Amino acid sequence: MPESTDPQVAAVAALDEPTRRRLYDHVVRQRDPVSRDDAAEAVAVPRSTAAFHLDRLADEGLLDVVYERRSGRSGPGAGRPSKLYCRSGREVAVTLPGRRYDLAGELLAAALDEADRSGASPRAVLERRARETGRRIASDARSTRPRRGPRQAALDALEAYGYEPRAESDGVVLVNCPFHALAEQHTALVCGMNLHLLQGVVDELGDSRLLPRLDPEPGRCCVVLGAEPDGGTPS
Questions:
Q1: Could you give the percent of the chain with pLDDT greater than 70?
Q2: Model's pTM, two decimal places?
């Protein structure tokens, strides 16, 4: 799995422990934050066990921690605030192979909204926004590992977004399509968006050897990176 998905996998794995899952389910169903004592009583485990698992859930970002005085008193003599737990705002999703329907949805929704306001072609707006997003993805990858060359930075960026890049002598094959289901139903639109996204990645990193072009084949992404098979460049 890409490094970027490791926290997602860890969060899901944290819920595999039965007691921890019961505690999580109890906390997220409550209207108000839950104390360790209340959680322990609800699932019939010792307070120390509840505290251990609740803190693990908080460490994984699945629960938020807040501190409140349950007595309603304040000031000197009111006692220390209690440590309480509630559902976090984090969303966790793990798919194998990796999918990025959130990214596709964000691009499509933003393009439609802009086109509706400006009167521009929705497809043209989508392609521009996809290239801008590709540039941002590449810039983030390069800033994370600044000593990497353009080619390796591109591979890092593509790996992080679920493309499963495989370097070959004449370029890079993308073993996985992060937008697979959408691309099957709306091939021209989604593959075009994908092509411009990857063009943005390459433009930002400046590696002229990794020229994106459409070359759909079963079992991989519709875009490959590299020169045309006859040695030319994509049009």
A1: 87
A2: 0.68
